[in-house]
């Protein structure tokens, strides 16, 4: 585990109330703020004076904790500085925001204003730290920044314009600095920035590579378990921080499956069977409806993704689509999906069944889609949200050494689940609805038996 907050290192700061009118500002008050005790690898990064530092490291190395300390130190050492933090998704930026805010909860007068809705911290010396999401890079533009952290750069810089048009441009007129951190995700822009540290043509850049094992607080048994349980390429990427040519995502060959376009005027084809995968929204997630031609194994018609739309409206839209295509509906019945499934079953003209998510059943669902994409057994149009979710979907290893699949923290996987449900149903379109459930139960029992053994 990381060092507790009580071991943070010491930093002198000047706590200056805002200067008002022509009154002389009060004398500088010196204080001590305890930050953290970096391990040896983190110290090397902290000591670097390069303008741009790129850190490629394995999971649980301590990169976010390190970056939080870097941005706070810069903000307190440089009065009236404008600092920014960007992560791939807004919910992920909240993690760093809340961490810094909580760290100063007992330090009165250091943070004078905070906004939980805007993710903005204002310090007594006039410095500001603003947190952003890479999927809304336009919000970064408009003002200069003196220091910027790019968190999970493998995902945050998936669109190169986030760096070239937003962040780098905002650092130009201030000669600002940047700390770019993350775990590799293929050889994208993050990789291109990383190799600049070894290129004499880029004297302002420094690169640092660190494995998970370089963090002395991580148990070696946990690393060994990951090596045994994860696919080799996933281990090399996530724990050894290697930049693999095509990355180590769950779904390989996504681009080869892109075909056709969404056509709202598409009509059922004679002799073809259709299925619908429905993943209803939970809390702040999205509801996604995927219609698939089970005969051709391709996503057709229109792809539906909605948020904060009344369930009654969603079910009505789903029902009309199912009736028109005589489609079999397979939906997530976990949690909020259970009463929705009962409501669907009361409607006529189509059959609906539920898929209950457990560790074993989700594994079965995802691995079936994984194999289908790998073998190019299905196709889907160029739907940006769907493609992004497929590309970032990842392996995880639980403390109990179970291999799981999920979206990265802060990201969504609703489109993946909807597609997986549709493909699962399309795999044997002539079977009865009960056959799907029987398969799921048998697979779950088999997995539980293997774990017990």
- The general outline is elongated
CATH fold-level label of the largest domain: Rossmann fold
Unreliable runs = 1-28, 430-434
**The level-1 CATH class of the largest domain:** Alpha Beta
Physical arrangement of strands within the biggest beta sheet: 5-6-7-4-8-9-3-10
Q: What is the tally of beta strands? A: 18
Shape-level CATH architecture of the largest domain: 3-Layer(aba) Sandwich
Amino- and carboxy-terminal Cα gap = 30 Å
Our count of domains comes out at: 2
Strand content: 15-25%
Structural class: alpha/beta
Instruction: Estimate the helix proportion, in percent.
Output: 25-40%
Classified in CATH, the superfamily of the largest domain is P-loop containing nucleotide triphosphate hydrolases
Mean pLDDT: 84
The biggest beta sheet, please? 8 strands, mixed
Radius of gyration over alpha carbons?
25 Å
Structural overview:
This protein folds into 2 domains: 234 residues, Rossmann fold; 198 residues, Nucleotidyltransferase, domain 5, CATH 3.30.420. Helix 11 crosses helix 13. It has 453 residues and is of the alpha/beta class. It contains 14 helices and 18 strands. The protein has an 8-stranded mixed beta sheet with strand order 5-6-7-4-8-9-3-10. Strands 11, 12, 13, 14, 15 and 16 form a 6-stranded mixed beta sheet that branches. The relative contact order is 0.11. The chain is elongated, with a radius of gyration of 25 Å. A hairpin with a 7-residue loop joins strand 11 and strand 12. The N terminus is likely disordered.
């Amino acid at each position: 585990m990381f060092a507790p907050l009580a071991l943070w290192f010491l930093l002198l700061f000047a706590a200056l109330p805002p200067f008002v009118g022509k009154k002389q500002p009060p004398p500088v008050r010196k204080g001590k703020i305890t930050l953290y005790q970096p391990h040896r690898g983190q110290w090397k990064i902290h000591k670097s004076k390069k303008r741009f530092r790129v850190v490629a490291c394995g999971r649980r190395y301590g990169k976010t904790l390190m970056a939080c300390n870097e941005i706070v130190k810069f903000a307190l050492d440089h009065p009236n500085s404008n600092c920014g933090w960007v992560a791939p998704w807004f919910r992920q930026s909240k993690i760093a925001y809340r961490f810094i805010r909580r760290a100063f909860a007992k330090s009165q007068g250091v943070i004078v204003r905070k906004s939980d809705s805007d993710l903005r911290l204002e310090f007594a010396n006039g410095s500001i730290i603003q947190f952003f999401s890479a999927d809304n890079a336009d919000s970064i533009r408009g003002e200069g920044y003196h220091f910027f952290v790019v968190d999970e750069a493998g995902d945050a810089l998936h669109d190169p314009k986030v760096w070239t048009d937003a962040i780098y441009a905002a650092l130009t007129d201030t000669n600002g600095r940047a700390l770019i951190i993350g775990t590799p995700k293929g050889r994208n822009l993050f990789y291109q920035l990383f190799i600049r540290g070894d290129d004499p043509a880029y004297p302002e850049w420094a690169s640092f590579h660190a494995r998970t094992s370089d963090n002395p607080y991580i148990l070696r048994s946990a690393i060994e378990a990951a090596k045994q349980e994860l696919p080799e390429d996933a281990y090399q990427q996530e724990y050894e921080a290697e930049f693999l040519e095509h990355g180590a995502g769950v779904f390989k060959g996504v681009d080869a499956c892109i075909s056709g376009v969404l056509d709202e005027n598409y009509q059922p084809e004679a002799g073809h069977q259709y299925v619908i995968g429905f993943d209803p929204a939970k809390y702040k997630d999205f509801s996604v409806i995927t219609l698939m031609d089970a005969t051709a194994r391709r996503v057709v018609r229109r792809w539906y993704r909605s948020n904060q739309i009344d369930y009654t409206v969603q079910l009505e839209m789903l029902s009309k689509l199912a009736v028109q295509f005589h489609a079999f509906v397979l939906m997530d019945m976990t949690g909020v999906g259970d009463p929705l499934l009962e409501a669907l079953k009361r409607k006529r003209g189509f059959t609906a069944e539920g898929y209950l998510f457990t560790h074993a059943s989700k594994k079965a669902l995802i691995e079936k889609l994984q194999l289908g994409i790998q073998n190019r057994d299905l196709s889907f149009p160029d739907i940006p949200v769907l493609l992004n979710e497929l590309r970032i979907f990842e392996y995880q290893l639980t403390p109990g050494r179970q291999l799981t699949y999920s979206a990265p923290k802060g990201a969504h996987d609703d489109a993946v689940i909807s597609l997986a449900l549709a493909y699962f149903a399309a795999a044997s379109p002539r079977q009865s609805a009960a056959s799907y459930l029987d398969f799921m139960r048998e697979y779950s029992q088999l997995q539980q038996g293997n774990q017990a053994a």
